[in-house]
Request: fold
Amino acid sequence: MANFLRWSIFYANSRVLIPTSEKTTAGVRRIIDPMQVVNVEHTDDLKRAILVTIAKGNPIVPHPSQDEMSKPVDFHKKLGFKSYKAFNHTAILWSMDLDDGIYEIGFTKIAQDGRGYDSDTSKTITFPSGTPVETVVDKLIEIIQETHRQKMIEGNKE
Reply:
């Protein structure tokens, strides 16, 4: 688990939010700036943004004070939502993990209690060791864009 890295990718309103993910010295993972927002249909820009974020890794930072930890990160506003609650009920979240050379794409859904997300392991994709990151990112983009197409067919523009 020492080599475990995780990135979060959010989709809503025909856009994709790719935040930087950090890990504190206490092991807490946090979403921080800088964050990139890309139109879901701009495949090359989307791929570039995801690869740039992955290249940053998960910076390890000193664990912040309780006051710092409780400050909200208003990433929902970057996708046009006025409240985190509205964002939470609309956005779709994927994770991309790298653990000892093995990439995995995970899909999450809103938790039953409406607070946070739960993994949907039935949709997890695990890639063989040695799979190039570009292959994994291409698959992730394919999944995100297919989700977008399905939302448009359903008439749900988020």
Summary: The chain is about 30% helix and 35% strand. The mean pLDDT is 89. Residues 117 and 125 are 18 Å apart (CA to CA). The longest strand covers residues 29-39.
